[in-house]
């Protein structure tokens, strides 16, 4: 599912202000001039309205002036590492370019080579370059176990013009979207999905609340959550990220961009961006984990193409709730856990963004579900993308057995909470 811009009315982004990138000594004069013209969208904004819940920050940081340990690569280096960007080395293709697997020399030990992912941005002009600059600005100065590490970048001239590339740590287990796909040979077991939900919440909490400035992801979705060799989930692709509103302001007014099915309704309708927009997207993602379905899937029957609309009739009845569970999951021990995760998702999907929880609160709730599930149903992690077992599944029409019956007290509480949220 690719991201693309939505435009409503005459709303546009405010004036762009150039922010140079630290440590880019090898970037050509041509690129320097282009960056001065284009600048980073991350630091351009038109914020308005007085905030009643003032953030901790006093002013926007100048991200470009913060120290960065990014490596600066040349085009020949990255050509060599990817076998001249061979299709045999291609890992995938996104909205802003192709990604290749590569091998580069380790800084600590030049005799050792490490695996990386090299994103080569398409030659689409200034728009692609803006996302490139934003990625370098964000990932060059933030670091967290649940954010994909940016190793370095390349902005150089060759016979074909300006080359813009990004070099990331290699994530061998691909994206969450890949494993949720019906075509995946490695459907994620339930406890692994819970851990992924927890990891993703940790990453968003860090961006929203744990720095002296706030970053709004703006394109949170399953394809932007990658899995390392230990199956730890990390947020990736920060090309659309924006700084949150400064102290005394409630939102950032911006052109509406993102991915259909994940974007918060108030953001789509007004262009007013807050961290609660990411919270909405996270709620959609939780239902994606529960159902194994994409938020929008045009290949399904008409009444099932929009996931949130499809699940709505099944949420008020615990017996019907089992019908929306991913049929590839072993259901015997996950019923209560899935219900609890659905309650958290509903809190994130409240129509009024002010009533949605902060990501730190969401993280606390998800952690409780994870701890409860692991203690009652321990499950070994997957070993790798090529090693999988046949998923154990039941047909959705099978009658619920006695050991699958939900706890009545929990069910009554669960139903009451749903009635007061987005339904």
TrEMBL record:
<keyword id="KW-0597">Phosphoprotein</keyword>
<dbReference type="GO" id="GO:0004674">
    <property type="term" value="F:protein serine/threonine kinase activity"/>
</dbReference>
<dbReference type="Pfam" id="PF00069">
    <property type="entry name" value="Pkinase"/>
</dbReference>
<comment type="similarity">
    <text>Belongs to the protein kinase superfamily. Ser/Thr protein kinase family.</text>
</comment>
<keyword id="KW-0547">Nucleotide-binding</keyword>
<keyword id="KW-0808">Transferase</keyword>
<feature type="binding site">
    <location>
        <position position="119"/>
    </location>
    <ligand>
        <name>ATP</name>
    </ligand>
</feature>
<feature type="region of interest" description="Disordered">
    <location>
        <begin position="374"/>
        <end position="396"/>
    </location>
</feature>
<dbReference type="InterPro" id="IPR050823">
    <property type="entry name" value="Plant_Ser_Thr_Prot_Kinase"/>
</dbReference>
<keyword id="KW-0067">ATP-binding</keyword>
<keyword id="KW-0472">Membrane</keyword>
<dbReference type="GO" id="GO:0006952">
    <property type="term" value="P:defense response"/>
</dbReference>
<dbReference type="InterPro" id="IPR011009">
    <property type="entry name" value="Kinase-like_dom_sf"/>
</dbReference>
<keyword id="KW-0611">Plant defense</keyword>
<dbReference type="InterPro" id="IPR000719">
    <property type="entry name" value="Prot_kinase_dom"/>
</dbReference>
<feature type="compositionally biased region" description="Polar residues">
    <location>
        <begin position="40"/>
        <end position="53"/>
    </location>
</feature>
<dbReference type="GO" id="GO:0080142">
    <property type="term" value="P:regulation of salicylic acid biosynthetic process"/>
</dbReference>
<protein>
    <recommendedName>
        <fullName>non-specific serine/threonine protein kinase</fullName>
        <ecNumber>2.7.11.1</ecNumber>
    </recommendedName>
</protein>
<comment type="subunit">
    <text>Interacts with FLS2.</text>
</comment>
<feature type="region of interest" description="Disordered">
    <location>
        <begin position="36"/>
        <end position="61"/>
    </location>
</feature>
<dbReference type="GO" id="GO:0005524">
    <property type="term" value="F:ATP binding"/>
</dbReference>
<dbReference type="GO" id="GO:0002221">
    <property type="term" value="P:pattern recognition receptor signaling pathway"/>
</dbReference>
<dbReference type="InterPro" id="IPR017441">
    <property type="entry name" value="Protein_kinase_ATP_BS"/>
</dbReference>
<feature type="domain" description="Protein kinase">
    <location>
        <begin position="85"/>
        <end position="370"/>
    </location>
</feature>
<dbReference type="GO" id="GO:0005886">
    <property type="term" value="C:plasma membrane"/>
</dbReference>
<keyword id="KW-1003">Cell membrane</keyword>
<keyword id="KW-0418">Kinase</keyword>
């Amino acid at each position: 599912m690719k991201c693309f811009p939505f435009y409503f009315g005459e709303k546009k982004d405010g004036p762009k202000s150039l922010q140079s990138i630290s440590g880019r000594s090898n970037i050509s004069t041509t690129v320097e001039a282009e960056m001065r013209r284009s600048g980073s969208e991350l630091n351009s904004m038109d914020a308005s309205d007085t905030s009643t819940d003032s953030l901790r920050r006093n002013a926007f940081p100048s991200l470009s002036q913060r120290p960065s340990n990014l490596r600066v690569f040349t085009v020949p280096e990255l050509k060599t590492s990817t076998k001249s960007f061979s299709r045999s080395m291609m890992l995938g293709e996104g909205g802003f370019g192709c990604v290749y697997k590569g091998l580069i020399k380790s800084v600590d030990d030049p005799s050792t080579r490490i695996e990386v992912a090299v994103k080569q941005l398409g030659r689409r002009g200034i728009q692609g370059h803006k996302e490139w600059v934003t990625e370098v600005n964000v990932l060059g100065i933030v670091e967290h176990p649940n954010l994909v590490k940016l190793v370095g970048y390349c902005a150089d001239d060759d016979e074909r013009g300006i080359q813009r590339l990004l070099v990331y740590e290699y994530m061998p287990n691909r994206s969450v979207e890949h494993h949720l796909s019906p075509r995946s040979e490695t459907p994620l077991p339930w406890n692994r999905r819970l851990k992924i939900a927890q990891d993703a919440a940790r990453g968003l909490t860090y961006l929203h609340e744990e720095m002296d400035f706030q970053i709004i992801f703006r394109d949170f979705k399953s394809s932007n959550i990658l899995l390392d060799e230990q199956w730890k989930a990390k947020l990736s692709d920060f090309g659309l990220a924006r700084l949150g509103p400064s102290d005394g302001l409630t939102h950032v007014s911006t052109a509406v961009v993102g991915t259909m099915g994940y974007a918060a309704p108030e953001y789509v309708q007004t262009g007013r961006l807050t961290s609660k927009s990411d919270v909405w997207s996270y709620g959609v993602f939780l239902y994606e984990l529960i159902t194994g379905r994409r938020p929008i899937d045009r290949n399904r029957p008409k009444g099932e193409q929009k996931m949130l609309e499809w699940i709505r009739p099944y949420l008020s009845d615990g017996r019907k709730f089992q019908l929306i569970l991913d049929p590839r999951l072993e259901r015997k021990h996950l019923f209560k856990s899935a219900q609890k995760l659905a309650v958290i998702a509903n809190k994130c999907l409240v129509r009024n963004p002010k009533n949605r929880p902060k990501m730190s609160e969401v993280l606390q709730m998800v952690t409780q579900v994870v701890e409860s599930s692991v203690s009652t149903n321990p499950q070994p992690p997957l070993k790798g993308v090529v090693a999988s077992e046949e998923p154990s599944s039941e047909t959705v029409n099978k009658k619920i057995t006695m050991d699958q019956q939900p706890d009545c007290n929990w069910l009554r509480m669960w139903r009451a909470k749903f009635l007061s949220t987005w339904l």
